[in-house]
Amino acid sequence: MSFYDKPENVDKYIEMCEGYDGSNLHQFLAKHLKEESSLLELGCGSGNDIEVLKNNYKVIGSDNSAEFLNRCKLRHPEVTFIQLDAVDLQLENKFDCVYSNKVLHHLSENDLRSSLKRQLELLNDSGIIAHSFWLGEGSDEMEGLLFKYYSKEQIVSIISEYFHVIDSLDYQEFEDGDSIFIVAGKVA
Asked: How far apart are CA 54 and CA 75, in angstroms?
C-alpha cells in the first residue's frame, strides 16, 4: 500500500494544504494556455488546483491514489477522474496541456525522464506541459514516499531533453526561491 492510499495520510495532506493559494501558477498558466483547452492534471491530490482549473479548461484529474480519487469525485462530481501512474501514463487521450503541482518530485530521475517522454506522446501538436518542482539538492524519503529536489539548471536541463522550455516562474511556497513552475512545449 502506497503512502497516499492510507486515509490518515490523505487526511494529513488535506489539513496541511488548507488555505493553499495556487493563483500564481494558475495565472502564469493562463498566459500560455487558451481557455477551453484540454488539460490532464497529474496527481490531483485533494483537488485544490482542479477547483480553479475546471473553470477555464476541460480538465481530467488523475492520481495514483484511489483514496484521493474517491475524495475528489465527491468534491468535484462534474469532473472526470482516472487512476493513473505518473510514469507510464497508460491512456489513449491527447491533451493540450499536462499539468502537475509538486507531484513529479516523487519520481526518481529515471522515472521523471520516462514520464516526460510519455507526456510528449500525450500532447496535441501544439501542446504544453506545465509542472512545478521543489528546488534544492538531494532527496528525502518519508514512509516510502520519495521527495527529489533539483537545482533550476538541473530540472530545466532534464525537461529540455524532451521539450522546448517556453517560460518559468521562480516562486516561494515556504522559503524564498524554494519552487519553480516550468511551461514547455513540443520541439518543432
From this structure: 12
CB 183 within 8 A of CB 32: yes
Compute the distance between CA of residue 4 and CA of residue 52 in angstroms, rounded to an integer. Answer: 23
Residue type for 8, please? Answer: E
Tracing cell 498558466 back to the chain, one arrives at: 29
22-31: per-residue pLDDT in tens? 889 999 999 9
Indicate the number of domains in the chain.
1
> Residue 39 domain-assigned?
yes
Residue 14: inside a domain, yes or no?
Answer: no
CB neighbours of residue 100 within 10 Å: 24
Dihedral of CA 116/113/70/51: which sign? negative
Name the grid cell of 40: 490532464
Gap between the terminal Cα atoms of the chain: 41
Answer whether 0.90 is exceeded by the pTM.
Answer: yes
Asked whether residue 67 is assigned to any structural domain, the reply reads yes
46: CATH: 3.40.50.150
